């Protein structure tokens, strides 16, 4: 896993997938900087997938919604699939009330389901070498 974006929004790498999240305090300037940082990381890391967890986002405005759509379009042009995970009911209600459709944006109920959609799965077995036998 690697570094932090210059916006202070962490962007982690897990294999060929980037994982990031948005917080409530996302103003227009930060949203644009985040988009720039993430598209740069998609390109330099050659990411095939991006998971954006918005479960901590309590409100959304039309600018941030448009930024998510633009980010998804840019990511697709760079060869990556974007999944927005964890949308809270108030955010969904606001989008509908504003008449905003997140065209082209894939969503998942939570981050785990988003990662599954990107091809990751949780193993029920611990990794080799991680098991400790209680009886010797």
From TrEMBL:
InterPro entries assigned to the protein according to its UniProt record, in alphabetical order: Bact_StressResp_Reg, STAS_dom, STAS_dom_sf
Pfam families assigned to the protein according to its UniProt record, in alphabetical order: STAS (PF01740)
PROSITE patterns: STAS
Domain of life: Bacteria
Domain STAS: 7-100
Name of the featured protein: STAS domain-containing protein
Species the sequence originates in: Streptomyces flavidovirens
Lineage summary: Bacteria, Bacillati, Actinomycetota, Actinomycetes, Kitasatosporales
């Amino acid at each position: 896993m690697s570094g932090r974006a210059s916006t202070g929004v962490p962007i982690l790498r897990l294999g060929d997938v980037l994982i990031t999240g948005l917080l409530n305090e996302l103003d227009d300037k930060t949203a644009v900087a985040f988009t720039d940082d993430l598209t740069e990381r998609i390109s330099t890391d050659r990411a095939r997938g991006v998971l954006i967890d918005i479960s901590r986002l309590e409100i959304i405005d039309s600018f941030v919604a448009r930024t998510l759509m633009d980010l998804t379009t840019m990511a697709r042009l760079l060869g990556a699939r974007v999944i927005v995970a964890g949308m809270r009911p108030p955010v969904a209600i606001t989008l509908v009330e504003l008449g905003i459709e997140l065209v082209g944006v894939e969503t998942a109920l939570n981050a785990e389901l988003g990662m599954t959609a990107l091809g990751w799965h949780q193993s029920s077995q611990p990794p080799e070498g991680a098991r400790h036998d209680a009886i010797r």
